[in-house]
Structure formats: structure tokens, C-alpha cells
């Protein structure tokens, strides 16, 4: 357990504050794991990696401000060995390492005086095989195996590479010099300032001095890379891939230029670095897919490369939104950084919202604003259980910081921003953001710094509303009762409660809730703020009233039975975003017993054939969700599947296996969604065609187009028998393209047959799949066989944890059980947590317990009604 020293040296406030003096945040108000008496201002780092031996040697000179005389200096260090530590004018230091606290304390024979000093450290460290600190990724090529090096420091792993004040509040500048094999490409946050040939196959690369930034944003990469660039104003935009893959990064490069220009305008501050690289690396992590290192954004290949041999329309859209997300961080996170991990959502919630804004602006044809409903639903799935937490949450340890990267931080944060932006207006929100960036550039902030600027720009009080949704957990429940229409207006009464899946009798929290409503088919929207649990509206028009029209609000909507009947009758004519919202609320409330669970299924049946493809995607999701609930009732499942297949098959027949000229992106995505869903539902026609196409791939180039490769492999893999599984395995072993190879190994782990799933688990712990793919295979087994995967991981705990990156160490094994419906798993998860995890690091285990408990309850309550409904439908 790490002990905090917040405010332990208040005199450090001036030294630690940003040079601009603009930030309202001081050291006294920021949580820390380190004393405040010594503050770094600049790191001068020189290092030499040995990729073959997986080690590195380094020396760093750290310019520090000492606030008051001290004989000891404590900073962060993990897995580092120190050979010499000294300070000019003071002498050498004795080194004491606390491995558990991940710190090193340097003790000098005489006190270090107050003022500026330089701390010089010679040390060595290890290169990891998982994405933490400086790490290596191996990959196959036609010339044999290759190895590349990269760094990953968020949230608390810079200390594995450089002894440092590894907390976001401690910003400093960096000079980095590295000795590398001549001919390999070295990448840093800044452009290369100088390269010197040392002879003997070695070169010394010196990068330009960085701006002031947090440790977790420092980056280094090294390998046999290709780089392509494009000039965007004064900024050199680049993409970096392993050799031969540049063409696959072209979509990302072409997309990023317009995004950069748009962000420059939106934030009111130009991107401040001379270059911005997007770096693609083979492999995977259980913790992240991309990382916003300033000027050098890291991506795993699946998140950046558009490979026509396997990439889908959904992949292209994900590449775009990921690039937009990470680029938004260059301002929200890099230029202005949260002071401590309590306010992580300032980084992640905002970037999640901004990615949507950019995508809506540049690609309206993708209709991606509908995806915001799905993101909100994911957040509500977490936020409705007792294990939730506020958006702004208190973080005390490294493990807790790692666990803070979740759907509440990202998706709820995004949803709250959408709601507040809709409340104050787009222009006022943007003006507030611009003021926030200007006031805090190169500094550190807390959430209220943002609210203060938006409130000033909007001239409208939002802080109290924002506090309700970010400082307390949970979801408001707005109950709707409509009166008789009179004089062309419909009165609406609103009552605020709380939507909770596992605490039905809890006293509801209170929120100030912005609510919008309109009569179905009307263009006039009425708005109000529900305060003190009550509110009312007078809505123009007569007819069914849609509450949360446009779906900007973060709350569940519960209609009285009469009001819902009207909404249901008008469902086919609602805007797509409201169809998604109404269906999502009905499904969640039905599973929770607050309205008939079959109401959502009635909406499934009422969905018109010409509904938006994303609405049909939601329909498919509801049906496959129900199918999963029947896993222990095969006869009832068969009856349900007959109905579900009959509902989806006409839509799939219309979409077809083959893309039509001029079809939209959402239609292309619906095609793969329906192939996957119908395969899950056991549709014999779709499964047979997927198998036929897979078998014909070797002789017919059109049998498995790249856009369908994943869906076809998923169907074949899920339904594989032993012979088919072995054939997939042989194909995986022979494949050289990492994106396709990883997909094949993923499908080996996504098989319904339990014996084959067990075989995949054994395979995952061998060296064959690759160090970073093993954990993903175990996770994939857990999707269909959570009990099997969890039991296996516990039985092979040390081996499994060896395949997991440091940031996921307390989350991975407990998370495998989350999809279980076996009551016995509750005790197993808790027993594992008690035996293996510190008391403050059991959040993921408790989330799994809550999910299992809720799933058992929901199935018991909902299945009888669903089964009766299926029988009635024939």
C-alpha cells in the first residue's frame, strides 16, 4: 500500500506550478505519492537499448528545484538498478529501493540546499515483452522474425524506464539521446535534431528539446520502419509502420491533416509541436489500443492500418475515430493535463466526445451520432450497479489508477459532455473550451477549471448540474406521465428517481436533469430542468410524447403503460436516434422488472424494414442477448432462435453477401453485423455459406472479400468441429501478415465447442501465438466459456499473469468471470481476489461479482415472460 503525501511540502507550490502561472491548481490541492519538497524541471536522458538481451543502460541528469534543505530525495523507480547517483556540489548518494512502493530514495551525507540543482543518475533496466515501460514486439516477415521497441508509460510506467517524478502534475522538459543500430529508425516526441555515426554499426540520435509535459507522455520507438509524411501548415504529419505497410496507413495519414486543422480552430490554439507521428505496431494489449504520446501517437496495428485483405467498414470508422480521439488528446491531456488521476475523465471523456464531433463533421454519411447512444448504454450498464463510481473519482494507488480507465471515465464522461453541450449550446461550449485551453496551456487542471470557463462563456449556470453528474455515481430515472392534449399542447409530468439494477430499495440520489421532449413527428422541442425530483413540460402538438428527444440526456426514461403504448405505436416513424433510445430504455427497464420485458421485443417486431442500419444493429443485439440467456434451456432456445432468425433473415436477404455499388458505410457494417448475429443464432443457411466461402478461398478470390473475412472466419471458428479447428490452426501458423494471423488465433479461441475452447487455452500459454496475443485468446474463450476461462487462469495464475501487461495485472483474471451466470463463480472470484489482490485493488473483482449476480437475477425474472411471448408469436 502506498502512502500519500499530499501537501506535505506546501512551499513547493510555486516551484511546481506551471511557468505561465495561469493554472488554478497548486501542489497543495493535488493528490501525490511523492513528497513535494523537490520538483523536476528538466530531464537530460541518454540511453542504449540492447534489443537482443532485453536490457538497456542509461544516464539521466535531472534539473530540480529544492524547496527547502533536505538530505533525501525520493522519486519513482521500478525494476531499475542504480550504479551511481550524485549531485554536483553535494556528492554521491546512498540508494534505497522500495520495490513495493516503486520508489527510490537517495540519501546524501549532507543536506542539499534550497535552490536549483542537477541530480545525475547512472542506471540500467529491463525491456519487457508486454506493453509497459520500454518493451519489445516480435513479428514475422518473409525475411524471418523481427523485433521492434516501443514505450508505454500511461498511467504509471515511465518509472520503469527513467527514474522520475512519475505523476501527471510534475511537468518538465526533456532532452533525449539514444545509441541505436545504424540503419534502424528511432522515433521520439520531437524531430531528430542530429544523428552521429559512431562506427561499429552504431549511431547516436539526438532529439530536439520537448515542451513541458508529464512523464506518461514521453515516447521512444526503434525498428525497421517506413515513414510517410504530409505537411499540414507548419506541422509535419507522419505515419510510421513496419517496412512494407505504409500503404495501409494512407487512410490515417489523409484523415489526420483535416482533423488537425479543424482542432486548431476548435481549440483556438494551434498544435504546438513541429511534428505529429502516428506509429503502428504489431501485437495487442489488454489495457489499450492507442496512446496519445505528445507528437508520437502509438497504435497497435489493428487500430491504425486499413488492410484491404481483412479490414471492414467498421474497422475504417474505428481507425478514424481512434485517430480523432488521440489527436484530441494533444490538447486535452497533453497541452493541458489533469493534475491527478482523479480527473482522468478530463482526458478520456473529452477525447471520446471530441472524436464523435470530428467524425460527425467530416463523415456525416456514417451517421455516427447514433453511436453515442450505444456508448451511453455501455456506461449505464456499469453505472446501474453498486460497484460504479463517480466520473471524478478518488484514486490512491497505481492499481486504482489503472482501473480508472473504464466505461464510466470514457463513455459516461462523453455522455455528460454531450448533455451539457446541448444544454448551453454548441457555440458557448466551444468558447468555454477555448478559454480553458488558453488559461491552462502547459499546465495542470482539475474538473472545476473547465466548468468555470464554460459557465463564464455560456452565461448560464452549469456547475451545479455538472457536479450532480460527475461527483456522484448513478443514473437518474425520469418517469413520464402525459395528460390530455388541450389547445394544441400536451402536458407532461416528470418525476426523478434512480435506475439501479442491484439496489431497488435504495433512496434515490438527487440530480438537476436537463430534459427535452417533443410530440412524435413534431419539429418543436420543449426543454426543462428537473429540480428537486419534479418537473413539467407543455409540449406543442397532440400525440405520443418522446422524452429525451435527440437522446442528449444521461438518464433512463420510464413511461406509464398508457404513454408507452403511444410511443410504441409511433415507433416506426421516430428518428433513428430516438428509436435507439426508446428501445434501449425499454430493454434495460424490462430486464430490471420496471416495465414488461416484452415491450422491447415488441419494438423489435415493430422495427420497419427501412429503419436505419444501426437500428437494425440494435435489434440484432437484443436478439443475440436473449439467445445468450437461454444457454441452459436448449428447447426454449430453439423456439426463440426460429423467431429471431425469421426476424433478421429478410433484412439480411436485402443486404446480401455482396456489396452493391454506392452502398453506404452503415449498410456495409450491417452486413457483417447480421452475418455474425445469424451465425450466433445458429442460422444454418448463413453458417453453411460462410463455410462454403471459407473452403473456396484458396481457389476463388471473390469467395472471401477482405470486408467479409472477419465475419466469415468468426462464423467458421465459432461453429468449428475438431477438423475445422485444426485447419484454422494450420492456417494461423502459416500466416505472415500480423493482422490476419492475429484474427485467426482469435477465432481459434472463439469456438463454441468446450473441448476445443480448452485446447485454445492451452495453446494461448505457449510461445506460438506471440507474447501479446495470449491474453487476448484467453479473453475470447471467456466470452463463450467464462467459467472455463476463469478456472483455467486461476489454475495457471503465474503463467497467465506473465502474459498480461502491468496496467492490467489486477483486472485481467477477475474480469474473465464477468460473463458467467453460475452462482458458484461469485465465491470463486472473491476467493481469488482475497488471496491475490491488495484490498484496494479489488474493484474489477467486485464488478465481476455484481455482473454475475445481476445476470442470474435478470434471467430468472425475464425468461418466463420472454418464453411465453415467443410461444404466443408462434
Write up this protein.
The chain is of the alpha+beta class. Helix content is 41%, strand content 23%. The protein has 27 helices and 28 strands. The strands form 6 sheets. A 10-stranded mixed beta sheet has the order 3-6-5-4-7-2-1-10-13-12, with no helix packed on it. A hairpin with a 4-residue loop joins strand 5 and strand 6 (103-112).
Question: What is the strand and helix layout of this fold?
Answer:
Layout: H1 13-16, E1 38-50, E2 55-66, E3 70-76, E4 80-87, E5 91-98, E6 103-112, E7 115-126, E8 133-141, E9 144-152, E10 173-181, E11 185-188, E12 192-199, E13 202-207, E14 220-223, E15 225-232, E16 235-242, H2 250-267, E17 275-281, E18 290-291, E19 296-300, H3 313-329, E20 337-338, H4 344-362, H5 371-383, H6 398-403, H7 408-424, H8 426-440, E21 444-445, H9 447-458, H10 463-470, E22 475-482, E23 489-499, E24 513-519, E25 526-530, E26 534-540, E27 545-547, E28 556-559, H11 561-569, H12 576-591, H13 598-606, H14 613-629, H15 634-655, H16 665-680, H17 684-696, H18 706-718, H19 722-734, H20 738-748, H21 754-764, H22 774-784, H23 786-795, H24 797-801, H25 812-816, H26 824-836, H27 843-873
Parallel strand pairs: 1-10, 16-17, 17-19, 20-21, 22-28
Antiparallel strand pairs: 1-2, 2-7, 3-6, 4-5, 4-7, 5-6, 8-9, 9-14, 10-13, 11-14, 12-13, 15-16, 18-19, 22-23, 23-26, 24-25, 24-27
Amino acid at each position: 500500500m502506498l502512502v500519500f503525501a499530499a501537501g506535505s511540502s506546501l512551499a513547493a507550490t510555486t516551484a511546481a506550478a506551471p511557468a505561465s502561472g495561469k493554472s488554478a491548481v497548486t501542489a497543495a490541492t493535488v493528490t501525490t505519492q511523492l513528497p513535494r519538497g523537490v520538483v523536476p524541471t528538466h530531464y537530460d536522458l541518454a540511453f542504449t537499448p540492447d534489443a537482443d538481451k532485453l536490457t538497456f543502460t542509461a544516464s539521466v541528469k535531472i534539473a530540480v528545484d529544492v524547496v527547502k534543505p533536505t538530505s533525501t530525495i525520493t522519486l519513482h523507480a521500478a525494476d531499475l538498478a542504480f550504479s551511481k547517483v550524485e549531485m554536483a556540489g553535494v556528492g554521491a548518494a546512498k540508494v534505497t529501493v522500495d520495490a513495493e512502493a516503486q520508489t527510490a530514495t537517495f540519501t546524501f551525507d549532507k543536506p542539499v540546499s534550497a535552490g536549483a540543482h542537477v541530480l545525475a543518475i547512472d542506471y540500467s533496466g529491463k525491456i519487457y515483452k508486454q506493453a509497459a515501460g520500454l518493451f519489445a514486439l516480435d513479428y514475422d516477415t518473409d525475411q524471418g522474425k523481427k523485433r521492434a521497441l516501443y514505450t508505454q508509460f500511461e498511467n504509471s510506467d515511465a518509472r520503469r524506464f527513467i527514474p522520475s517524478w512519475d505523476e501527471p502534475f510534475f511537468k518538465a522538459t526533456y532532452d533525449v539521446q539514444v545509441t541505436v543500430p545504424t540503419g534502424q529508425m528511432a522515433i521520439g516526441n520531437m524531430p531528430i535534431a542530429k544523428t552521429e555515426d559512431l562506427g561499429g554499426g552504431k549511431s547516436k540520435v539526438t532529439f530536439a528539446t520537448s515542451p513541458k509535459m508529464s512523464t506518461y507522455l514521453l515516447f521512444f520507438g526503434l525498428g525497421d520502419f517506413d515513414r510517410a509524411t504530409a505537411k499540414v501548415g507548419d506541422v509535419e504529419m507522419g505515419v510510421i509502420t513496419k517496412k512494407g505497410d505504409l500503404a495501409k496507413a494512407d487512410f490515417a495519414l489523409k484523415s489526420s491533416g483535416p482533423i488537425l486543422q479543424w482542432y486548431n480552430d476548435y481549440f483556438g490554439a494551434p498544435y504546438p509541436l513541429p511534428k505529429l507521428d502516428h506509429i503502428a505496431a504489431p501485437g495487442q494489449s489488454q489495457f489499450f489500443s492507442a496512446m496519445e504520446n505528445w507528437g508520437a501517437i502509438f497504435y497497435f496495428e489493428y487500430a491504425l492500418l486499413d488492410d484491404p485483405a481483412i479490414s471492414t467498414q467498421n474497422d475504417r470508422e474505428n481507425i478514424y475515430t481512434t485517430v480523432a480521439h488521440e489527436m484530441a488528446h494533444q490538447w486535452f491531456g497533453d497541452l493541458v493535463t489533469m493534475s491527478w488521476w482523479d480527473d482522468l475523465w478530463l482526458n478520456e471523456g473529452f477525447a471520446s466526445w471530441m472524436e464523435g464531433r470530428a467524425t460527425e463533421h467530416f463523415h456525416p454519411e456514417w451517421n455516427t451520432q447514433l453511436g453515442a447512444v450505444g456508448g451511453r448504454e455501455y456506461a449505464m450498464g456499469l453505472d446501474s450497479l453498486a460497484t460504479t463510481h463517480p466520473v471524478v473519482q478518488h484514486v490512491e494507488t497505481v492499481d486504482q489508477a489503472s482501473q480508472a480507465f473504464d466505461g464510466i471515465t470514457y463513455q459516461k464522461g462523453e455522455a455528460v459532455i454531450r448533455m451539457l453541450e446541448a444544454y448551453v449550446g454548441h457555440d458557448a461550449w466551444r468558447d468555454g473550451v477555448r478559454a480553458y485551453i488558453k488559461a491552462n496551456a502547459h499546465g495542470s487542471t482539475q474538473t472545476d477549471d473547465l466548468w468555470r470557463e464554460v459557465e463564464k462563456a455560456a452565461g448560464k449556470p452549469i456547475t451545479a448540474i455538472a457536479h450532480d453528474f460527475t461527483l456522484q455515481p448513478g443514473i437518474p430515472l425520469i418517469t413520464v406521465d402525459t395528460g390530455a392534449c388541450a389547445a394544441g399542447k400536451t402536458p407532461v409530468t416528470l418525476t426523478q428517481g434512480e435506475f439501479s439494477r442491484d439496489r431497488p430499495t435504495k433512496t434515490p440520489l438527487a440530480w438537476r436533469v436537463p430534459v427535452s421532449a417533443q410530440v412524435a413527428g413534431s419539429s418543436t422541442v420543449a426543454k426543462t430542468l428537473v429540480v428537486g425530483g419534479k418537473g413539467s413540460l407543455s409540449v406543442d402538438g397532440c400525440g405520443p410524447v418522446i422524452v429525451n428527444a435527440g437522446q442528449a440526456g444521461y438518464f433512463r426514461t420510464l413511461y406509464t403503460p398508457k404513454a408507452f403504448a403511444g410511443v410504441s405505436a409511433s415507433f416506426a416513424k421516430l428518428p433513428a436516434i430516438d428509436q435507439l433510445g426508446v428501445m434501449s430504455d425499454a430493454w434495460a427497464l424490462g430486464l430490471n422488472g420496471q416495465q414488461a420485458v416484452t415491450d422491447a421485443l415488441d419494438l423489435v417486431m415493430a422495427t420497419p424494414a427501412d429503419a436505419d442500419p444501426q437500428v437494425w444493429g440494435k435489434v440484432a443485439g437484443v436478439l443475440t442477448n436473449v439467445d445468450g440467456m437461454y444457454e441452459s434451456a436448449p428447447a426454449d432456445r430453439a423456439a426463440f432462435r426460429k423467431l429471431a432468425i425469421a426476424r433478421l433473415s429478410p433484412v439480411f436477404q436485402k443486404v446480401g453477401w455482396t456489396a452493391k455499388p454506392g452502398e453506404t458505410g452503415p449498410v456495409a457494417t450491417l452486413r457483417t453485423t447480421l452475418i455474425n448475429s445469424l451465425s450466433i443464432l445458429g442460422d444454418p443457411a448463413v453458417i453453411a455459406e460462410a463455410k462454403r466461402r471459407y473452403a473456396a478461398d484458396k481457389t476463388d478470390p471473390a469467395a472471401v472479400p477482405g470486408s467479409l473475412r472477419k465475419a466469415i472466419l468468426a462464423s467458421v471458428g465459432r461453429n468449428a468441429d475438431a477438423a475445422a479447428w485444426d485447419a484454422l490452426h494450420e492456417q494461423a501458423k502459416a500466416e505472415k501478415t500480423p493482422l490476419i494471423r492475429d484474427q485467426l488465433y482469435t477465432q481459434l479461441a472463439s469456438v463454441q465447442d468446450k473441448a476445443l475452447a480448452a485446447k485454445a487455452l492451452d495453446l494461448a500459454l505457449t510461445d506460438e501465438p506471440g507474447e501479446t496475443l495470449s491474453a487476448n485468446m484467453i479473453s475470447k474463450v471467456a466470452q463463450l466459456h467464462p467459467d472455463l476461462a476463469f478456472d483455467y487462469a486461476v489454475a495457471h495464475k503465474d503463467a497467465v499473469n506473465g502474459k498480461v501487461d502491468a496496467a492490467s495485472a489486477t483486472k485481467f483474471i477477475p474480469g474473465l468471470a464477468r460473463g458467467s451466470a453460475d452462482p458458484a463463480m461469485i465465491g470463486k472470484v472473491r476467493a481469488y481476489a482475497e488471496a491475490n489482490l491488495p484490498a484496494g485493488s479489488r474493484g474489477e473483482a467486485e464488478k465481476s461479482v455484481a455482473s454475475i449476480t445481476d445476470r442470474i437475477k435478470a434471467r430468472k425474472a425475464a425468461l418466463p415472460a420472454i418464453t411465453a411471448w415467443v410461444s404466443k408469436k408462434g
